[in-house]
Amino acid sequence: MSVSLTPTTSLTPTTKIRKGRNFVRRLPLGPTGALASLALLVSACAEDKPLNTFEPRGPKAQGIYDLMTPIWIIMIVVFVVVVGGTLVLTVIGRVKPEDYDENDLPKQVHGHTVAELAWTIAPAILLAGVSFPMVSAIWDLERDNKPGELDVMVIGQQWYWEYRYDVDGDGFFEDVDGDGELYGIEGDGDQDDKEWPLNLALDDDDLSVPNQLVIPAGQQVDLTLTSRDVVHSFWIPRLNGKRDTVPGRLTFWSIDADKPGEYNGACGEFCGLSHARMRMSVVALPEAEFDQWLKNQMSLSEVPEEPAQGQDPSPERAGYEVFASQCARCHVVNNSDSALQELYPKDFEADLLSGAAPDLTKFATRSVFAGAIFSQYSGIDPDDDNLDVTNYLQLAGTERLNEALLTRWIKNAPEEKAMYPEGRRGMPAFPGLSDTDVENLVAYLATLD
Fold it and tell me: 115 in a domain, yes or no?
């Protein structure tokens, strides 16, 4: 019995290659690529997203936008010319595989003086034309022609932002070593004070607010930026561009919001485990409401009343006692309890990071916590600019506290947000606290308004 092994179609290696090329050529790469590009473009487009440079809400952000728009137009034109020209030349110079001749090369223009001068001078003129408005815009952003009425120090720390308000106008630093000289903003003062850790050298009379910067709408706010640990970058896209915060260095920036509202941002410089979860929130209030907010922030928090003899303490009082025993080593609550202040006085040799934990004096007056990644009240999304600022001063009285989230955070903060408590970075877990302790502590925090 014989079997014929003769193929029905003779395929030479050249034929196989050509069939393979034909197969690839038949694939709908053009439509597929176009659809993929369109899907990518659509996925990047969204309304009402907080980190949006294309929706300026302040004069400085508007200046950046006004500069960016013509530059984008120039970039698109250059892209179309270069890529379009490349595609046209590709189509014109394309030959079929069977017609290819390695000796049939396009006409070479190397050494063509006019052409080489043209494609050298034209980009130089284009770049020079773009650079002048860009440099001018940078100078405008840096120039301090009109100092603002409010000075705030922005301090980056792993992983939250602290805002220090110079409410008494005497500067941000104090005479730590007691020699009568101060380290000033310009750096020409007492250098010995400069050597102290930042959280010790700062003026205790200034207002410290973590996570949420509150400003008056329609006013320029001058910022002094620095860091306690690594380089961070302060960025509120709708109000201004980015500015790095560098340890041991003071840099200056300013923001202003045209109208009341909430404006979110994010750290723009990789700073460790929770870089992506180091957010920032700016709330702009009408001037009269801002003055009311500032007055409240400077007041002392009330201490829950002690129970009458033979009675159990209220949940708020029990939570206050838990706070005094477990939390006051790191956190500050300014109140009238002199015993607590004597128990935990300011210690100039204290650990840097523990001594710089968020100030909780008016904890319940803010809408976010934990580096501005969590909403303090139910129904508020910290990732969207949807906070009703007309209700901001009454948050604690009108909104429902997010007790479940606060409970999880207090019990085991590193599980909710990547941190490094073993290296004194971030908030540690408290497995020793009972459910009742945590419940009482949440009840106490709700009174800090």
Answer: no
